[in-house]
Design goal:
It contains four helices and no strands. By secondary structure, it is mostly helical. It has one domain.
């Protein structure tokens, strides 16, 4: 199911995860802002939901890739 993810180098996914998780750097990263909105129940606008998925997707992919890599080693 995730064989396409295995073909992407880890450093590319890690770089995308870091950059998109922290962008924009000032005044506050979007991912952090959207996660706070989600926790407070204020995440309602479609643009905010899209931002959460856009900035969070590379982080999720990185986690999946790391888990799959750990399973291959053991």
């Amino acid at each position: 199911m995730f064989s396409w993810l295995d073909r992407i180098p880890l450093h590319i996914i890690a770089l995308a995860a870091v950059v998109l998780a922290l962008a924009p750097f000032v005044p506050e990263p979007h991912l952090w802002e959207k996660l706070k909105m989600l926790a407070s129940g204020a995440l309602h606008r479609p643009m905010d939901i899209f931002d959460l998925f856009m900035h969070g997707a590379p982080v999720i992919l990185l986690i999946i890739k790391l888990i799959r890599g750990a399973r291959e080693v053991s």
